[in-house]
UniProtKB/TrEMBL annotation:
PANTHER family: CHAD DOMAIN-CONTAINING PROTEIN, SLR1444 PROTEIN
Chain residue ranges for the region called Disordered: 1-38
Every CHAD domain range: 32-313
Gene3D superfamilies, per the entry: CHAD domain
Organism: Amycolatopsis rubida
Pfam families reported in the protein's UniProt record: CHAD
InterPro entries: CHAD_dom, CHAD_dom_sf
Biased composition (Basic and acidic residues): 1-12
PROSITE patterns, per database record: CHAD
Protein name: CHAD domain-containing protein
Biased amino acid composition, Low complexity: 16-37
Length: 319
């Protein structure tokens, strides 16, 4: 039996919603439902999404499967950060383990993005330079293979199985278990203010030519704001939902521009890392790639502030 066949045989059966005790139909919450019901419905939805993407993530044939699994992980973590009191006392340990899952997913995702992007860049090079470009990319493919092994071990671990059970339990938390008195009706729209203020403070604290890491931190703040706004929109009336949609649209654009910036920084750093041991052909191609990434980085730096002003205007309309 080949090692490939053995690997397939040992791949665990995917966990199903039913195995976690979730109902056959996804949870739903209408605009009139309490805030806690919206939080539980969101956890239920994202957990099902994560489970549906797990087999494709393990297989690794389509990078989009891992990407969407990671999106589900991040959304659940954001929900538990902003609304932990609405789902029960065990929210924080679950959120911490979602952070661990995000790290192992993120390592492979970074390589997926890097490899896909470099292949696109190299395809535009002169045909004489493309073989050296492919040899350069092959180094990162090998590194991704190692990272994927770590990911699949994590997805087969007791820690991951316990995490799934923990999320499922939070999504089923009964009303009487929630730390919410009848006199208090938490507004999910009000939850938007906290991540917005964090983002605003981070923007205000930036120096004129901010370090790359500071702009990456802005993207993370913006992502948290977007996820919180998405949850708030699910519980909002029509007029407020429209305002939240504008905020979500602006934060999505913010993420895209600063994501391009971070991808360029990461690509340039990884490509520079091969130069000490590169031959002349790979060195030449690597230099061209780094130049391309620095131009992409500069464009993002010239663009992000205008989008931030759109976020400001959209959030003020919501408030």
């Amino acid at each position: 039996m080949t090692s490939e066949a053995t690997s397939r045989r040992r791949t665990p059966e995917p966990t199903t919603p039913a195995a976690l005790g979730l109902p056959a139909e996804p949870a739903k919450a209408g605009p009139e439902a309490p805030a806690a019901a919206h939080v539980r419905a969101k956890l239920d939805h994202e957990l099902r999404e994560l489970l549906s993407r797990e087999p494709g993530t393990r297989a690794g044939a389509d990078p989009e499967e891992l990407h969407q699994m990671r999106v589900a992980q991040r959304r659940m973590r954001s929900v538990l950060k902003s609304s932990s009191a609405l789902v029960g006392a065990t929210a924080e340990p679950v959120r911490a383990d979602l952070g661990w899952l995000g790290q192992v997913l993120g390592e492979v995702r970074d390589y997926d993005v890097l490899i896909g992007h470099l292949r696109e860049v190299i395809a535009d090079f002169d045909v004489r330079d493309q073989p050296a470009g492919r040899r350069l990319v092959s180094r990162f493919v090998s590194e991704r293979t190692t990272a994927r092994r770590r990911l699949n071990r994590a997805l087969s671990s007791p820690r991951y199985a316990t995490l799934l059970q923990g999320i499922a339990q939070l999504s089923r938390t009964a009303e009487h278990e929630i730390d919410e008195t009848p006199a208090e009706k938490p507004s999910l729209a009000a939850d938007v203010r906290k991540p917005y203020r964090k983002l605003a403070r981070a923007v205000a604290a930036l120096p004129p030519n901010p370090p790359d890491d500071d702009l990456h931190a802005l993207r993370i703040h913006g992502k948290k704001l977007r996820y919180t706004a998405e949850l708030a929109r699910s519980a909002a009336k029509k007029k407020q939902a429209a305002k939240l949609s504008e905020l979500i649209k602006a934060t999505r654009k913010f993420q895209t521009v600063l994501g391009d910036h971070q991808d360029a920084v990461f690509a340039a750093e990884k490509v520079r890392g091969v130069l000490p041991n590169a031959d002349a052909e790979i060195g030449f191609v690597a230099g061209r790639i780094v130049e391309h990434e620095l131009a992409k980085r500069a464009h993002a730096r010239a663009t992000w502030l205008d989008i931030w002003h759109r976020i400001e205007a959209a959030e003020h309309a919501v408030s």
